[in-house]
Each structure stands twice: as C-alpha cells, then as structure tokens.
Amino acid sequence: MKKNMLIIIGLCALGLCFGDVQAVNNAPAPIEINKLEIADPPQGYEEINLQGTLMLGVGPNAVVAGASDDAVYIGFNQDFGNVSISIYNEAGLVVYSTMVNTSVQQVVIIPFSSAASGTYTVELNSANGYVDGDFEHD
Question: Residue 136 needs a FRET pair 20 to 30 A away by CA distance; which of 18, 53, 91, 117 works?
Fold first, then answer.
C-alpha cells in the first residue's frame, strides 16, 4: 500500500512539474522593440523635411529626421531592411556615408559638430526607394 501511495505522489508531483512548464510556455510574447513610434526628433533637433518614399504604402512619419549643432538624428518607425544613409555638402560631395539594418537599429545619431557651416542634404536609400532633405549647419 505504501508503494502505491509513493507512486501516486510521484505522478502527482510529475504532473505539477509539467503544469509549471506549460504555464511558462503560455507566457505572453516578449515586447518587440521594432514597434517604436517616433513622431518627432528629440528636443534640441530641428526637423529635417524629408521628401520621397522608401517603400510604397508607408505612413507620413515612417522616417523622422532632425539636425542640431552637434548631430543628425534619424528614426525609423518601420522596418525598411538595409538603408544607406549619405550626407552631402553644398558642392555635392559625400561627407558621411553608412549602411543601417533597420530590422535591428531604429535610431541613428550621426556626430556632426566638426562639419563646416553650410547647407547639407541627408539622403536615405533602400531597395524600394529613397528620401532626402536639406538642413542648415552653423
């Protein structure tokens, strides 16, 4: 009789363990960081008015950009895959260029304090299109 009781207790304990595992597996999914909603550049950045389209069917704030005395800020509200970012001076020469995987990086801050004063153009290119916009750097 004791042996049967130990088997029953053991099975109950085993059932509780499986119940715990099942409860863990039913936990809510982790929060996705790709779901950022960046409406405007952060305080201290003047908005860069971007023109064009990176992808068909995207919202007006799919990409947000801004410039300050020290940096250029770019925020992606959607995943565009790989995006090339280039900054051109008034003479049309590239002063900065990089490639960003927007699947994993939604914000890019480009140091710009040592650039000469003038008008610059930031251009973003993906496989599906581009946007660009001008900004002043003092």
Answer: 53
Per the CB < 8 A criterion, the answer to whether 34 and 106 are in contact is: yes
What are 30-62's pLDDT values in tens digits? 333 444 556 667 788 999 999 888 765 566 678
Rounded Cα–Cα distance for residues 15 and 9 (Å): 10
What's at 83, amino acid-wise?
Answer: V
Under CATH, which number does the domain 33-137 receive? 2.60.40.3080
| 37 token code pair | 């909603």
| pLDDT, tens digit, 9 for 90 and up, residues 12-23 | 444 444 444 333
Task: Tell me the domain boundaries of the chain.
Answer: 33-137
Angle at 120 between CA 122 and CA 115, to 5 degrees: 110
Residue with tokens 């930031």: 122
Residue 128's CB: how many other CB atoms inside 10 A? 13
